[in-house]
Amino acid sequence: MTFDVERVRADFPILGESYRGKPLIYLDNAATTQKPRAVIDAVSSYYETSNANVHRALYWLGARATDAFEGARVKVKRFLNAASEREVIFVRGATEAINLVAHSFARPRLQPGDEILVSHMEHHSNIVPWQLAAQAAGAAVRPIPITDAGDIDLDAYAAMLGPRTRMVAVVHVSNALGTINPVEEIARLARERGVPVLLDGAQATAHVAVDVQRLGCDFYAFSGHKLYGPTGIGVLWGRERWLREMPPYHGGGDMIREVKFSGTTFADLPNKFEAGTPDIAGAVGLGAAVDYVTALGFEAIAAHEEALTDYALERLRTVPGFQRVGEPRRRGPVISFALGDVHPHDVATVLDMEGVAIRAGHHCAQPVLDRFGLPATARASFAIYNTRAEIDALVAALHKVVELFGR
Description:
The longest helix is centred in the first third of the chain and has 21 residues, at 60-80. The strands form five sheets. The protein has a seven-stranded mixed beta sheet, with helices on both faces. Strands 13-14-17-16 form a four-stranded antiparallel beta sheet, covered by helices on one side. A two-stranded antiparallel ribbon has the order 1-2. It has two domains: 5-30 and 297-404, Alpha-Beta Complex (Aspartate Aminotransferase, domain 1), CATH 3.90.1150.10; 40-294, Type I PLP-dependent aspartate aminotransferase-like (Major domain) (Aspartate Aminotransferase, domain 2). By secondary structure, it is of the alpha/beta class. The chain is globular and about 75 Å long. Helix 2 (37-49) packs antiparallel against helix 10 (280-296), helix 4 (94-106) packs parallel to helix 5 and helix 12 (344-353) crosses helix 14 (388-404). It has 14 helices and 17 strands.
């Protein structure tokens, strides 16, 4: 199937915006993606035609809202190839999903001296929740080493798995390096030792097909806003056997079966973990985003993004002082780089004046930048609507940075 990037671009209204007379070139997709008209319309239509609270109303509008909300859950179930809709929990994003597992699943199982393994390339959202759970139990979080190229050291990882390992939490695709981790092998090694695995899929779901049954993990977390969906909505997928054992993370309405002062009994899955009024419109928008990327097809998406990233790396090497950070065996459409001794914030500021939006900073991944001896990097990250012409504009703007700073 031919990937028509211009047709895709026409689906994204914001790409028609300009700044200082220059068209918007948006290369910060690892932070959040732009939204297609299909998602915008789905959210708008929900509020215009179906706005009511879900699960509890007996009138027709409430039933319509509930059908839309639960229909989105079915779409996500198919998208992940989950065994059941009961395994799909709507949350605010990958951050909340990981916190839920850390405190509802891991924390009750931890004892002093136990260990949680996370990789050295994790986003803070896949480090801090485990630290909080471990500190409360007297356990420890241990980093899995990575190589100079930015790959997980699988031999070191296998050696770290021991009798006190209670959890492994690893990113599927690194937001700082672009590394696509061998998560099936990581999960297999843990499973052989009876250790549950959580995968942080925040950077993966927009770029690669995710089949949780094939991956062999126990939990998978992702955010809607990195998948061309709305902000404030995300998903925790978990194996039903674990979810049934886990206590609720939040208490409130719609997650109960019966409340008495003598005690409360909780609703069945997935409601047990969805206290209060959910982000109904967000779920509907996420369902529309799932439909959108599924229709494009992940083979076509991956081919477009891989070719674009290859082209970007080729062109970026022509910029004096360009230094790529990390050269993993498999990588997604993310390039972190330094530009001589020009501070990344200065790089991003000059690029902004040229209408090119990139990210500069530590990318909420300070440990991995520490690993490479850097306080910050510039980062360009690509999506389905980016083009070679935009890469050329990025490179031209970086040459202006070099000229401006006299390098």
